[in-house]
Amino acid sequence: MRPENPESASLNFPDAEILAVSKAGEILASVGARGVPPGGMTVGLLAQAPLEGGTPRELLQDVTFADWAPNGTEFAAVRAQGGRSTLEFPVGTKLYETAGFVSHPRVSPDGKLVAFLDHPSQINDEGEVAVVDRAGRKRTLSGGWASVEGLAWSPRTDEIWFAATTEREGRTLRAVTMSGRTRMVGGVAGSLTLQDIAPDGRVLLVQESRRMGVFARAEGDSAERNLSWFDSSLVTDVSADGRQILFTEFGGAVDSLYAGFLRSIDGRRTVRLGDGFAQALSPDERWVLAILRAMPPKLVLLPTGAGGGGARTVPLGHLVVHRADWFPDGRRFIVAGNEPDHGVRLWSGDLSGKPFRPLTPEGMPLSHYEGFPVSPDGSSLAAVAPDGRVAIYLRPRGAR
Fold first, then answer.
1. Where are the beta strands (DSSP E) in 56-146?
2. I need a labelling partner for 117 at 20 to 30 A (CA). Which of 133, 138, 200, 266 fits?
């Protein structure tokens, strides 16, 4: 839709998401985009076409975000490959790479800088506002945000505007200067995502009100049960007998950003286990693995009953943890994590304090929904490999 004409027009982009529109009316879109977390992010084939229509011209594979430079010929792109997120500008020149992910790149009006959101984890949208120049020199301008979505340069280029929240409230509109001074611009009910700022200062925003719930249908039920707790419930595990679910509650309805709960399938009993992103029930159902939001994140054990005592922290060494699960023996953990300046891979560890042992090559892609199941005898595991295909990894003989 053009602002001067209220009539909308259909574009010849099947199964695509628009990423950027140049001043000359050229579209960059992700074709064949498939959804990956967090926040509905997609990855697909970058293509270009004029607003007036025409066959899209294919440009680049595995693109999650893109933005035109002011000259209308260069563009910045973020690519997801080998479990890492890479910011390129111009395309082919790598400016920044992370084992987390980069989102919302925006080229400055003079074409000298790219502003972007830098997220340390692949499975949520916490992060910081940063800029990088054409030589690859990165600066963090504003960090510590529990959720940050959307970015744009102000018309005077003295500020970068973004939408973010620190903890429980919805995202509000904020601005940061090149020296790192942050101010509040404004907010509304719900949560904001910033799309763009026009040269005359008008701001294009999306106001969001999301719900995420849990539904179940047990044996003997004639209909589904709604087992959601508040407004953002994500189920992460089910007990072996099918009588309990493990879920995490997000957002303003809980005292912290994430909290883990155990709920009976009939909905009559719900227990708050503690803070953290609940990951998995132990085979004996006495413990839950959870990840606490921190810098770096912490891996903790939450007891499910009175006999377990308090929460226990799992020593990670230098690992940055993203996901966690149990081995069938109930004594060891499998962790998706990365060492500093390395890609994500799967690791084996336990409570002994010994260093975690790598199980897979670097570059494992992650999501909320794709796990890494271990065989009943603990000798092999299935996971999505760096090339995107499902692979079976075998434990070497004699390895713990």
1. 57-68, 75-81, 84-88, 94-98, 101-107, 113-119, 127-133, 138-145
2. 200
CA pseudo-torsion sign 356, 359, 364, 369:
negative
Burial of 308 (C-beta count, 10 Å sphere; 0-12/13-18/19+): middle
CB 121 within 8 A of CB 83: no
Whether the link from the prior residue into 37 is cis, omega within 30° of 0, is no
Q: Which residues contact 5 (CB under 8 A, 6 or more apart)?
A: none
Residue-wise pLDDT tens digits, 59-78: 999 999 999 999 999 999 99
How far is Cα 15 from Cα 216, in angstroms, rounded to an integer?
31
The length of the chain is: 400
Instruction: Return the bridge partners of 29, or none.
Output: 18, 47
Judged by DSSP in three states, 308 sits in helix
Report whether 100 contacts 118 (CB < 8 A).
yes
Q: Is the pTM of this model over 0.85?
A: no
Which three-class secondary structure state does DSSP give residue 238? strand
CA torsion angle for 356, 357, 363, 369 (degrees, to 10)?
-70
Phi (first) and psi of residue 80, to 5 degrees: -110, 105
Q: Where are the alpha helices (DSSP H) in 141-283?
A: none
CA-CA distance, 124 to 101, in Å (whole number)? 10
